[in-house]
Amino acid sequence: MINRKHPLLSLLIAVSAIGFAVAPWTIASIACCFTPSTLAQDTSPKVNVTNSEPTQKNPLVPKEVYLVGSEFDYPPFAMTDYQGQPYGYSIDLIQAVAQAMGIQLAFQTGTWNEVRTALEKGEIDILPTVAYNEQRDKVFDFSVTHTIHDAAIFGRQDSPSFNSLNELHDKKIIIMRGDWTHDYLEDKGDFNNLILVDTLADGLRLLASGEGDYVFGSRLIGLVLLQELKLTDKLKTVGSAIQGNRRGFAFAVTQGNRQLVQRLNQGLNIIKASGTYDRIYEKWFGAIDDRGISSEQVFDMIRNIILVSVGIATLILMWSFTLKKQVNLRTKELATAKSELEKTNQQLEDYSQNLEQKSCSKNSRTHANFRESHKSTSRTHSIRETCGARTTHCWDRS
Fold it and tell me: Which of 153, 258, 329, 372 has an alpha carbon 20 to 30 Å from 243's alpha carbon atom?
């Protein structure tokens, strides 16, 4: 019942009663929404797995640490030391890029087929040395090329030379399983006597032992291996370099991870601009692949040319400014001299006119005086004549 004397107080009591009645149901409903299982639930996308390992995170989401695959024996790109730690050209390169971009890395080593399969399954994030081709582009995403390389045919010292790779379709060619050179020959379809090995080093050893006829592999890697394996007296390159893959090596990542590709591309641009890339390349390939003037040296030359050009331009501008100032000053001096000369000429002209006027006036007066004098003389002469006539007359009369 509403208290007529205090209607506001009665309304507050009624609202409070309704609140106490509804509160338990409301609290229970909210509690159901925030059970411990719900609070612990991970709302990020999941990757289905068939083993008992923890559920993997979405590989497309930026990670704190990226897992890089590295090969056991692919010198000088990837090798392992006596402690099992990876090192080599590709390791230095990916570490330099990661440092430039603030990316944390961890490494997982294995054979080429093992690390390649791991990337296909999303078990690792990056392979630092992968040759591009259309088949691999369907499985991986690639960064820009970081190393251009050619292939070469390696033979024994007494192996005959050839002009084209097609001349070897009936020969036994040793090749690294799963390498881009393997894909290259399979695409041609004319090579049926392929001997597959796990590493290029195994192929060169096999050739040196008398097995097979030739080894087909990366020229740079093969030349390094010949020196390291001390096989330069037994094996050599035969024929000219084969430009089978001008796209070269790049970083490969999980398909669809364009964000990581963009970060790797940006890191490559940074280390190339800073000269770090050239120092890494020179460290691993300088002895066998003289690329001439490095990009760092080119940048230095361009910078020096720009500085000299700017200096010359500055001197020209200063000289031009000084010359202009001197010309303006000389022009003012000439204008002043011209003005003074004109003033002097005017004064001379005025003075000449005054002299002429004075001369004319003087001549007029002289002429007038002359006429007056002439008149006086004439009168005097007349008077004298008159006087003389009178005197004569007087004399005649006397």
Answer: 258
